[in-house]
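Structure request: Copper chaperone PCu(A)C, Siccirubricoccus soli.
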Amino acid sequence: MTLHMSRRIATVALLVALASAPPLPAASQPPGGSTIEVERAWTRSTGPTAQTAVAYVAIRNRGTAPDRLVSASSPEARVVEMHETTMEGGVMRMRPVQGGVAVPPGGVVRLEPDGGGVHLMLVGPRHAFGRGERVPLTLTFERAGNVSVEMTVEAAGARRPAAEHGGHGHGDHTRDARPGG
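Returned structure:
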């Protein structure tokens, strides 16, 4: 067998092996190019008999397609629900958010005490949350899928995370979007 023939046989064998190999997995980019980041995830400390805890986050969509927060969960609570607080005739009402929370491309949605009333309610905490602890939280999006974070536990009456108390903002130049729209 000549060297030229050996090379041809080796090339054919390589091509057959490549053709029969399973395809390589696609890059793990969410459909539609959505890239979700969760920032400033926090909750407040609770007492040992607390039936609920409230969680706040900022959701940044660095992608070019809209996305939607559809659910949340934590191993430290029986269930996590999305709620919206509104004022009606001088009475504060809290209702579940229907259809999730829209996160527009290039936008930031803030679920915070002063951010339009949308927040996450941790129902049935498994134990008291102590200041300084970390509580796991998984947010599920239509496009991006699951995004897991750890919330910091702040003081019971906190209005924002402790890291922001003395600051002058974070240079956030993306547009804000009203939750739920």
